[in-house]
Amino acid sequence: MERNDMLKYKTALIIGAGPGISASLTRSLTAAGINVAMAARNVEKLSALAKETGARAFPVVDAADPFSVEQLFGEVDEAVGAPDIVVYNASARAHGPLADLKPADVHRALDITAFGGFLAVHHAARRMVPKGHGAILLTGASASIKGFPQSAAFAMGKFALRGLAQSAARELGPNGIHVAHFIIDGGVRKSGVIDEKDGLLTPDAIAQTYIDVLKQPRDAWSHEIDLRPWAEKF
Length: 234
Hints:
Blueprint: E1 11-15, H1 21-31, E2 35-40, H2 47-53, E3 56-59, H3 66-79, E4 85-88, H4 103-128, E5 134-141, H5 152-172, E6 177-184, H6 203-214, E7 224-227
Parallel strand pairs: 1-2, 1-4, 2-3, 4-5, 5-6, 6-7
Helix pairs in contact: 1-6, 3-4, 4-5
């Protein structure tokens, strides 16, 4: 990737960073000369990636807590610069039969997957709208468009995140802010896993799609892209 391809962006914040998609995306963004801030509850797990890429790791106590998220954005503003790319990867599940689910667990799953996404978009918009520039990328899943048995809470949260993405794209697009929703429709391969049948998505391939979307000219923006291995049924 040529550095010049991404010069329109300077700073990225990835919320819900981890060893998979976020790690691959961090490598791609930093290779393009973009300053990357990675946020997670456990920043220790990001230490090796931070050392490898030069990205900065920031703790976010609770992605669904308004004060925690506001504090995170403030810290990133001061240490790295106001992000003109914000990626929301955080989510939570409450798996099991509807009759057995604990309401508190479902509430928590919705908070992190959907309300946390709103908080990220809210703070991103406050920084990007005055500048008329930015990109907000929201990570969805198969559950964004299909509700599976014993996965109602996850589907509810991802459906809500998709709705947020649609509303945000229509509202913020005219202000120069590219909002895109990515439906990751399939399992994601973990590091070291051999997948001879190509039945899993690779984090590097997913990250490349995020980069390709960031490179799009504003007269041909994608709002939603679904990604799946050829072997995945849909």
